């Protein structure tokens, strides 16, 4: 995972927490405001149950208060960071276009079988919609532009980097492989016969495979580079000879036998020469820049961010 991808994952987790807390607080405030309107008095005792255990309830007010106590400071800092970054971008006349967001999302999706798979993982693992992922991507790009504003990278620096890291910019082939691993060759032969008779590969993997990493995923090993050192070479060599959808086995392993299916092939596009040089220029500039957290702190101070109370009462 690259430096930018690590930053995005960390950032979307924070964003997810922010969404949970702020939506929960909104649920609290709206009924209270509605109840108070017209009556001319503030309502403070609203406590809708959200869960029950051992005959006792947990109110939504208690739930939200716990969320605020645990995450309130981080949420507030994140809100201040966003306001400071957008204020600085406006001051510097720095913008991020929809096309730039699209290109960055395409880059982030490059390790996934499809765009749908990427967004499903964002939704399932972090609860983020497409719009929320796009918004956080825009923020990260804006932060990068501010961080690298005024930093110079020479053509000779780019040339040297490309020479030293030539392999990083070659097209790479990855294979989407599924595997059923068993102890005995006779078991592998039996599985091959079932597959020939129309059995579903994923169901057989869940039923028979002794590989704990993949059996619950229908045997899926994920996207694997053709020279992946962590995958047994007999599996890689067998997969190389298959067309998508093809099955091969039994494959002898050190501790058993495998039947594999090639479920997809992806060949990365390193981009045009201009795109590659632009990416390297940005990377080298980021290496010279201060860290993201330092920049956000500087901007908060610059725009006189002041926290009056980071654990507000419901």
TrEMBL record:
The chain crosses the membrane at residues 7-25. Its EC number is 5.2.1.8. It holds the Pfam family Rotamase. It catalyses: [protein]-peptidylproline (omega=180) = [protein]-peptidylproline (omega=0). SUPFAM superfamilies: FKBP-like, Triger factor/SurA peptide-binding domain-like. One of its GO terms (molecular function) is peptidyl-prolyl cis-trans isomerase activity. Keywords: Isomerase, Membrane, Rotamase, Signal, Transmembrane, Transmembrane helix. This is peptidylprolyl isomerase. It comes from Paenibacillus sediminis. Residues 172-264 form the PpiC domain.
